[in-house]
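User
Take a look at the entry that follows and flag anything odd:
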Amino acid sequence: MTAAQTTYSTKHPETGERVTFTKGGRPARWVTWGDFGQGEGFQHIGFSAQEDYAKAVRAPRSTNPHAARYEATEATAVEKAPAEDAEQAPAPAAAPRKVRLQYVGWVPAVEARELVVGDQVMYNGGSVCQISAIEEASARFLYVYEVCTEKGTESRRKVRKDSPAARVPEEHRRPLGHESAPARHYRAQVCAPHGDDAWVTVSHGATVDEAGHGLTRTGRARSYFSSLLLDAHGLGYRADNVDGRAESVQAMTEGQTLTAEDGHRFRILAPEQPPSGTETGTVDEAAQHRTGCLPESANAPQVKAAKRVLAEAGQPLAAFDAGQRCASEGVDLDPRTDTGEVVLGFVAEHWRTGPPPAERERIVRDCAALFRKAGWAVEEFWDDGRLARLILTPPPTARERMTAALDAYGVPAHHDEDAGNSWLVIPPIGRHFPGAGTPHLVAYVYAPAEDRAFVDDPMEGEAGTWLIRCHVGTAEPVVFRSDPCAAPEDATAEAAAAVAAIRAAWTIG
C-alpha cells in the first residue's frame, strides 16, 4: 500500500517566493534550508518536526554539517492524500521549478530526466552546453554528454534524474562556435565524440597562428586551440614530447585530421579562397593579413578592446595586407595613442567597390549603438550628410578603476600578468613589489563564463566579480568577493575598501 503523502507550502527565506514540497511519514512543522557558500543562496535540505524555531534551525546540522548558515520556514499543509486513495487523488499543482545560477540569478528549470539530446543547459556564469548523448547510469542517475557552445569540446556529467537543470528556451538557444568566418581565414575546428560529425569552428584568423589562438564566438576569451586545448586531449605538450604542439599544428596545417584517445577530432581548414596576391592557400609572413586595423595598430589596448565588442556582435572587420592595402571590406579601427581613443570607419578595397553609402552608414550606426551599450563614449562624425566615422573612448579598465580607488587610501598596486590573465599585487607594507615568499594580496576580476582573471579590460559587459586573495606560503584563500550584481564602480569601491582594511589590520598585526 502506498504511504500517505502530504504537500507543504512555505516561503523561500531569501526571495519570499511561495514554494511547495511533498513528503510522507511524520508530519512536518518546518522546512529547513542551508547555504553552502557557493553563491547559490539557501537550498532546501529537509524538514523538521520540532516545535521551537530555534531547535528547527539547529536540527539539520547533524545531517548537513557543511552549510555556512541555516534557516527554517514554517510549513503549512495544503493537501494530504490518504494511502488508500493515493492512486485516485489528483496530483497537486506543482509550482514552476527554478534554480539559482551564480552571476545569472533564478531561472526556470526542469528535472534532468526531462532532458533530451539537442537540449541546451545553462550553468553558473551563463555558460551554455548542448546535450549530445544521454545514457542510463543507474536507477537514479544519468550520464549526460555535453558539448560546450564556445569551444566545441565534450564532457560527461553524472546527474541525479530529479536534479534541476536550467534548460535554455528554444528562442534563446546559442549556436555552436562561430556560425561563419571570412573566406580568407583559417578555421580551427573540433568535432566531439558524440557530435554526429558536426565540426565546430572555435576560432578563426588570417593566419594559422591567429586561428589557433583567436577569439571564441562571444569575443570575450581566446580559444587556445593550438596550445591548452591540444594539451588537454593529449595532442600537445607532453613530458615525452615537448614539441607536441608544434607538430600537431603543422600536421593540421598540411590537411591532416588529428584524433585524440577520448574520441575528439581536431583540424585546421585552409582559407576557402587564397589571400590577395597569392596563388595558393598559404601565405608567407611578409604578406600576412591583419583584420580590423593596420598591422602596427594591432597591439593598441583600445583596438583590442574594440575588437572584442565587434566580434561579439559579428560585425565584419576589414583585412589589410603587409603593404597596408585593404584586402577585404569591413570595419577599420585607427587608434589615437595620445588620447586613448579609437576612430571607427568602414573601408573597402576600392572606393568604387563595396556596399553603397547607405549600407556603409547603417553599419557605422549599428556599431555606434553597439559601443554605447557596452559603456563606451561615442562621438559621431558626419560627412556630406551621412554618418561616416565614430570617435570611441573605452570605459576605464578594471586596473584603472582599482588603482584610482586604492590611491584614495594610499595603497599601492603593482600590475602583473601571465598566459592571458592579469592581476594587481598589493604589498602588505610599503610601496614596493613584494619579494619572493613575502605574503601579499592579489586582486583581479574573475569572469566565470570565460574562466579567466583580468584587470586590463573594462568590467562593462563582463559577468565578473572582484576577488581578493591572500597569498601566504602555498595557501591563497579568497578573503573578499564583491557582489556580482553591483555596478563596476560600486564593486570596485567595495573591493578597494576591503583591501585597505585588510592591509591596515595586517600592518597593525
Notes: The radius of gyration is 27 Å. Residues 83-87, 275-289 have pLDDT under 50 and may be disordered.
